[in-house]
Amino acid sequence: MIRTRTWTVEITIDEHEDERRTRAVAVLRTEARPQVRGEGSAHRAPRDLEVPEIGDELATARALADLAYQLLDATAADIEAITRRPVHLSS
Fold this sequence. Notes:
Blueprint: E1 8-16, E2 21-29, E3 36-43, H1 52-83
Antiparallel strand pairs: 1-2, 2-3
């Protein structure tokens, strides 16, 4: 029997024009564990053109990368709890 699960990632992006900064938060929700939250930001240099999509993309990519590393750490901890041996998971 195939078991299918759906995990949902919600991404919230906010832009702070006065600081030239975009921040993204990615939250993973599953039935199996507490939510995992990753954060990322992007900063625009004063000489850069204002293109909000670029800040959104970069901040989101960084938030998802942070989320992925936290999920790898959680997975390693779960494996270590079962095997009672140190685990190193590479991406």
